[in-house]
Structure formats: structure tokens, C-alpha cells
Amino acid sequence: MKQFNFILFGPPGAGKGTQAKTISSKFNVVHLSTGDMIREAKDDPSFAKYLTSGQLVPDAVINAMVFKRLQKDDCKNGFLLDGFPRTIFQAEELDKFLQEQGRKVSVVFYIDIAQEEIIKRLAGRRVCGSCGGSFNIELKPPKKEGICDFCGKELVQRKDDNPATIKERLDVYEKQTKPLAEYYEKKGCIAKIDGAVSPDEVFAQIEAAVKSL
Predict the structure, then answer these.
(1) Taking the chain, what is the end-to-end CA distance rounded to the nearest angstrom?
(2) Closest CA to 53 of 156, 157, 167
(3) Is the peptide bond prior to 163 cis by the omega test (within 30 degrees of 0)?
(4) Which of 70, 79, 73 shows the shortest CA–CA distance to 97?
């Protein structure tokens, strides 16, 4: 079976979480979300401040965490990196690490979407702190207001989804992460995905990009 090493990136609210689950299942690769890794370490003071400020965790901290995770057995058949790399430096360090392992990035899925749509999506997002279910009060409301469809627990707004932090996150993305598109375009391994369409249509674009490999 062909090994796929994917990277998924795009602005906050582009629907990366939804697509990551489908990609992981469809292509039998482990989904590695640095956002989840960091949130799991929310009780660590060195991480907590970044969760509420919208700022990026320092490269050295993130790199060490991701590279250690990539060496585990479940990544040997392929992986999907979601939320990493976020800077050119991280991308360069990842390339060096993979080269040392005799591996390389198969394709980078770049989900692009207008800022106005992002703000609408994020401000209305509600998540379940128990099972991780995600909803949107306008676009994908739960059957019962404020209650998770899957486990019946209360839905909450993530701290980093408030308007002030959304603006900060988008500013950080524009300055530090968006340049990755040009970096990977030069390497010839990027697939630009229109994120403004339905989730099924987004995945159809992703599937087409993989088939073209």
C-alpha cells in the first residue's frame, strides 16, 4: 500500500478538522493535530498562555513535540499533519527531519477561504467539552440549543473563538502561516482547495489531488 504523508493547512475556521477526519479514514493515515496536543497540555503554564492569546507556541517547543510524535509506530504507514508547520522555519525543519527518516511530504492541502466567512464560522462555533462534537449556531446548529447531539452534554464557545482572539489569530495566520503556500508551491507539492463550498465538495477536491499523485 502506498504511504501518504500529508499536511493540511489553512486559516482558522476553514474546516480543517472536518476534512482531517475524512482524510485519515479514507487514506488510512494517523491524524496528528498539534492543536489537540497543545490543548491536552492546557494545565501546563508554558502552554496555557498561548491558548487564550492567539499567539503561536515557540518553534522549538512545537518542533520537539511533533518530531517525537512522528517517530511512533502508528505513523510508519503515513500521517496527516494538521496545524503544523505554521512557519517557514518549521517547514524547513520538518523537511530536514523527514529526509533523515528517508521520507518526504506527499501533498500539502491548502484550504483557502475568505476572511468574512471565517469570522462568521468561528464566532458561531460551539464545541462539546466531553466528546469533542462541533456545531455552529447558524451553519450547523445542534438539535437542541446548547446541547451536544452526540452525548447530550453542554456545548461551549472555545476561548480562542471570541471576536478579539479571532482577529488576533487571523493576523498571526496572515503574517506567519500563509507564506507556506508559496514555500510548498515552489516544491511542487501543494494542492489549493476552495474551502467556501460544502464539506463533501471540499473533500472531492482533496481526493482528486491525491489521485493525481
Answers:
(1) 14
(2) 167
(3) no
(4) 70
The percent of residues in the chain predicted with pLDDT above 70, rounded, is 93
Q: How far, in Å, CA of 184 to CA of 14, rounded?
A: 19
Measure the CA–CA gap between 24 and 80, rounded to whole angstroms.
Answer: 7
pLDDT(56) > 80? no
Angle at alpha carbon of residue 76, lines to 33 and 180, rounded to 5°: 45
Residues acting as catalytic residues: 16, 86, 125, 158, 169
Helix axes of 115-123 and 163-172: crossing angle, nearest 10 degrees: 140
C-alpha cell recorded at residue 44? 501546563
CB 11 within 8 A of CB 115: yes
Q: Break the chain down into helix, strand, coil percent, rounded to 5.
A: 50, 20, 35
